[in-house]
Amino acid sequence: MTRKGSELLEFSYPYFEVGPMLVMKEKPEPNQVFSFMMPFTNEMWCTLAAMTMFNAFVIWLVESRTGHESVGAIFWFPLATLFYGGHSKIYVNFKHFTSLLSMFYMDYMNFFCNAGESPRSNLTYFVLAPWLVLILVVSSTYTQSFTSMITSSDTESSSCLDIEDLKKTNAIVGCDMEDSIMLQHLVEYIGFQRKNIKHIAQSSIDDYAKALSTGKIKAAFFWAPYSGLFLAKYCKGFRSWGPNHNLRGSSVIFPRDSPFAPYMSEAMVRLCGSGKFKRMKDDLLSFPECSSSTIDVTMKRGIGPGPFSGLFILSGTASAVAILITVIRPMRRRWERLVQGMLMGRGLWVWLTTLFSRDQRGNQLQVQLARISFTSQTQLTSS
Q: Which residues cross the membrane (predicted)?
């Protein structure tokens, strides 16, 4: 129902209140107890815990082979770096990457100095070097993500998200731009900039839900009947405001001065007044299976192990190499001792053989010399 239309046509009593309805994604209230785990996914936490315990075991194994009497602090150092190294403010800036590594090295030295222990094996440093780089990146990412999550949730919960807020922040809103009346109303009457309006067909309700869930649009504008249909299907995860401006209504149209218009208006008044029309609308807008997939998409946010896979592989490879070296060293020493024993046994045999052969040759020489001396004496006597 419009002013220009009333000059040409006859309208019955409106059965629908028509106005622009604002539909936005409802911010779910997270569990505050475990909110610190939200920046990372469960897979990321499990991977980080497994890598931490693996590196701790490798460091303990390496240091125990060096005769270290107390390796308690060394065992817990990979786990302590998750928290102890974050006492300073960390920002990912590759121009100052060297200074950040120096800062972690100072934290590392302070930790061991306070504990009264320090690694004795170079393999420990070989394992800790990629691990410290991994913790540097993971801790800075966690700090930024968690801080952003807290500030954004506080901002959204403390501010009243209405049309004025959307206009001030130049938020992208969606509507059916083929509907010239809706577009004109948003631009001329409400004051949205045309560049901040994204076209989404009003008949495709699922496209609105997808755009709101993924963040392509901050809000959507429907006419009141369509917003009811949208909220009936997606009953969880969205809220509606309005109508803020009741410009028109939906009614039955008749030709100008039609005698049927008053009778239809009377029937509409009775139908709406008795509550039958509301029950009919509720029955039509009820869905047996209310879709709640959008709320699941918004809740399951977090950073997985994918972006850090290279660092995890590097740290795991260093630890695996350290284990191989630690295991091979005793085997190599045993092999060297075995070879040395074999060589020593062979050398003793050669020495005894040589000594015996020398004694035998000496005896033969003495016998020959005795024979020669006896022969010479016999010749002298006969002469």
A: 44-62, 74-94, 123-142, 308-328
Q: Does residue 243 have a cis peptide bond before it, meaning omega lies within 30 degrees of 0?
A: yes
Do 348 and 178 form a contact (C-beta atoms < 8 A)?
A: no
Distance CA 188, CA 168 (A): 16
Q: Are 260 and 10 in contact (CB under 8 A)?
A: no
Cα–Cα distance between 135 and 132 in angstroms, integer?
5
Q: Which three-class secondary structure state does DSSP give residue 70? A: coil
* Nearest residue to 322 via CA among 134, 114, 66, 30: 66
What tokens were used for 383?
């002469």
Distance CA 234, CA 268 (A): 29
Tell me if the pTM is above 0.90: no
Tokens 């960390």 appear where? 90
Residues 6+ away with beta carbon under 8 Å from 375 = none
pLDDT tens, position by position, for the chain (383 residues)? 566 666 667 777 666 666 777 888 876 555 567 777 888 888 888 998 898 888 888 888 887 777 655 455 555 555 555 554 444 433 334 444 445 445 555 555 554 544 445 667 788 888 888 888 888 888 888 888 888 777 765 544 444 456 777 888 888 888 876 666 778 778 887 888 888 888 887 667 788 888 888 888 888 888 777 777 787 778 777 877 765 555 556 667 777 777 777 777 777 777 776 767 667 766 666 655 554 443 333 344 578 888 888 989 998 999 899 889 888 877 777 777 776 666 665 555 555 555 555 555 555 555 555 555 556 556 555 55
H/E stretch holding 184 reads helix 180-184
